[in-house]
Amino acid sequence: MTLLVLWRHGQTEWNAIRRIQGQTDVPLSAVGIAQAEESAPRLAAMQPTVLVSSDLRRASATAAALSALTGLTPTYDTRLRERGFGEWEGLDHPAAGSRWPEAFARWRSGEEVEAAGVEEVDAVAKRMVAGLLEAVDAAGPDAVVVAATHGAAARMAAVALLGLPLTYASSFGALHNCHRTVLHRHPVRGWMLEGHNLP
């Protein structure tokens, strides 16, 4: 049985002040580094066989904590990056909401956003799923694949892999820093959810 673990990166300074990151390459804070080091042993206990990561520093540094314990060499894939938030990146929520009130309200309610260069949900899901399935298929049967990635992108990927409408992504709830979503691939039923937002 193949396991896929979608592991969100540790906290950044922008996370702490609710500044929108998207694909801006913000490093882990001291808190985020500690979170990765605390979380890594729990993932190591799952005996991962493959470690892949977004190339953004907050994800790659999180992956490095698991690499140090397991000896796995991570591979980096731009397809595992966070959703691009266009002109919103670098703004806090009140600033983005005041400049794009209607679009921001749609985003907050889990609807599609067609403003400010925000990446479409379908595009995020497609690139994430392509990158994840490539890693899973290359790993072979009974692999445990850990993907160090980002919160919104991970939720969209999970929903897409489960065959659910992408509008369900907001129903999953936020994936906290250094928490994970775990899926397994059943030989007949396909991808199945084992747990979401696990520490």
3D architecture notes:
The protein contains seven helices and six strands. The protein has 199 residues and is an alpha/beta fold. The chain folds into two domains: 2-84 and 120-198, Rossmann fold; 85-118, no CATH class. Strands 3-2-4-1-5-6 form a six-stranded mixed beta sheet. Strand 5 and strand 6 form a beta hairpin. Helix 2 (30-44) packs across helix 3, helix 4 (93-99) packs across helix 5 (101-108) and helix 6 crosses helix 7 (151-161). The longest helix is centred in the middle third of the chain and has 19 residues, at 121-139. The relative contact order is 0.22.
Number of helices: 7
Low-confidence stretches: none
Q: Cα distance, first to last residue? A: 22 Å
CATH topology of the largest domain, by name, is: Rossmann fold
Supply the CATH superfamily name of the largest domain.
Phosphoglycerate mutase-like
Number of domains: 2
Helix content: 25-40%
CATH level 1 name of the largest domain: Alpha Beta
Shape category: globular
Number of strands: 6
Biggest β-sheet description: 6 strands, mixed
Topology:
Elements: E1 2-8, H1 13-16, H2 30-44, E2 50-53, H3 57-70, E3 75-76, H4 93-99, H5 101-108, H6 121-139, E4 144-149, H7 151-161, E5 180-186, E6 190-198
Parallel strand pairs: 1-4, 2-3, 2-4
Antiparallel strand pairs: 1-5, 5-6
Helix pairs in contact: 2-3, 4-5, 6-7
Protein name: Fructose 1,6-bisphosphatase
Active site: 9 (tele-phosphohistidine intermediate), 82 (proton donor/acceptor)
Binding site for substrate: 8-15, 58
